[in-house]
Design brief:
By secondary structure, this protein is an alpha/beta fold. The chain contains 12 helices and 20 strands. It has a domain at 3-246: 3-Layer(aba) Sandwich (Carbamate kinase). The protein binds aspartic acid and magnesium ion. Aspartic acid (ASP) binds at residues 9-10, 41-42, 47, 73, 135-136, 151-154. It catalyses: L-aspartate + ATP = 4-phospho-L-aspartate + ADP.
Length: 423
């Protein structure tokens, strides 16, 4: 039997009961003959509460001290879980990210893992321990400062450790039974996906599906680590994310994997841009120099009478203010009339490798939206994805309509949300 990495999210370890339940499950895996490494998130909404607390003492909620603060959340859960396991008669040791050898760059609050040197973990395992690791954190290579990997980063910790330790599988335990064809909080009839390719999962993750982070899936694909997403509450078999289906997993990729939505973006429209070469380049250079990432871009047809056009793009709401400031600073050099900022938008995406070879997917998608009376503001596509921007108020209706139109609705109500406040 090989080594498994199990990761438990905040809602699975939200209280003492939850921690004891997780301890039993971890011991079960050990009893089945596995070496077990467990990655934990902070209990419940601890991370959000720490962020609120930081806001009460300082306007600066970022940087080195902020990372020091947030990593405390995961340290609480790792120690409590180790204690709970020991009290059930099994050996366990907990480790911070730094002790576990998670080495990152020095970008505080969104560090990237650049190396994993899990010597201490390996030793702990060899001595018969269950190793518990605090997720979402590491230590910077150059300054030896504590860093965090960005919100939801514990999944990435788990996959990175699984790769470094040559694990058989990385199990991600969450508060739903797996990856669903849509957010089960929005679509009651969402279906659990038994198997999904890394490619489709990456598109779902970058389109707003929150069950797995894009960076985590990217890492898993690079090192070819199969991920099993499942619930710590039900113990049911969940969703396998991997290169190739194995064993009794479905042999065929579904035509459409699912519908994702995202309400975390805003839209900026640059109004009255001269329609001549070099203008778009200047706009996006200003955005790039401010180190901001954009998502969708659309340029309108210019009105012949004025020779002016509008350019709209979307980006995370959290970057909205900085983008507006960067464009205002560059206004003289670019030469536009005004800026419009709109954060009442939503993005709805349909994802599936099958759309490459199936005509009519785009038509059905737009017909579903029109049937639901949803107006489309922007459109973008990739080979295996179609995304539209709509009004935020329309998002739930739009997701349900598209889900139904592609025959994704399940007969039974299998989409159970076991925990979490959705915060
Ligand atoms: N506790 C961190 C967060 O809430 C990391 C994680 O849960 O993965 O973002
Ligand atoms: Mg969390």
């Amino acid at each position: 039997m090989g080594l498994v990495v199990q990761k438990y999210g905040g809602s699975s370890v939200a209280d003492a009961e939850g921690i004891k339940r997780v301890a039993k499950r971890v011991i079960e895996a050990k009893k089945n003959g596995h070496q077990v490494v467990v990655v934990v998130s902070a209990m419940g909404d601890t991370t959000d509460e720490l962020i609120d607390l930081a806001g009460e003492v300082s306007p600066v909620t970022s940087g080195r001290e902020f990372d020091m603060l947030l990593t405390a959340g995961e340290r609480i859960s790792m120690a409590l879980l180790a204690m709970a396991i020991k009290s059930l008669g099994h050996e366990a040791q907990s480790f911070t990210g730094s002790q576990a050898g998670v080495i990152t760059d020095s970008v505080h609050n969104k560090a990237r893992i650049i190396d994993v040197t899990p010597g201490r973990i390996q030793t702990a395992l060899d001595e018969g321990n269950i190793a518990i690791v605090a997720g979402f954190q590491g230590v910077s290579q150059d300054k030896k400062d504590i860093t965090t990997l960005g919100r939801g980063g514990s999944d990435t910790t788990a996959v990175a450790l699984a790769a470094a330790l040559n694990a058989e599988v990385c199990e991600i335990y969450t508060d739903v039974d797996g990856v669903f064809t849509a957010d089960p909080r929005v679509v009651k009839k969402a279906r659990k996906i038994d198997w999904i390719s890394f490619e489709d999962m990456l598109e779902l993750a970058s389109s707003g599906s929150k069950v797995l982070l894009h960076r985590c899936v990217e890492y898993a694909r690079r090192y070819n680590i199969p991920i099993h997403v499942r619930s710590s509450f039900s113990g049911l078999r969940g969703t396998w994310v991997s290169n190739q289906p194995q064993g009794d997993q479905p042999m065929e990729q579904a035509l459409i994997s699912g519908v994702a939505h995202d309400t975390s973006e805003a839209k900026i429209t640059v109004v009255g841009v001269p329609d001549k070469p070099g203008e778009a380049a200047k706009i996006f250079r200003a955005i790039a120099d401010a180190e901001l990432n954009i998502d969708m871009v659309v340029q309108n047809v210019s009105a012949a009478s004025t020779g002016l056009t509008d350019i709209s793009f979307t980006l995370p709401k959290t970057d909205g203010r900085r983008a507006i400031e960067a464009l205002e600073r560059a206004k003289a050099g670019i030469g536009f009339d005004s800026l419009r900022y709109d954060d009442q938008i939503a993005k709805i995406s349909l994802v599936g490798a099958g759309m490459k070879t199936n005509p009519g997917v785009t038509a059905t998608f737009f017909e579903a939206l029109s049937g639901a009376g949803v107006n489309i503001e922007l459109i973008s596509t990739s080979e295996i994805r179609i995304s539209v921007v709509t009004r935020k108020d329309d998002v739930n209706e739009a997701v349900r309509a598209v889900h139904t139109a592609f025959g994704l609705d399940s007969e039974s109500d299998e989409a159970v949300v076991y925990g979490g406040t959705g915060r």
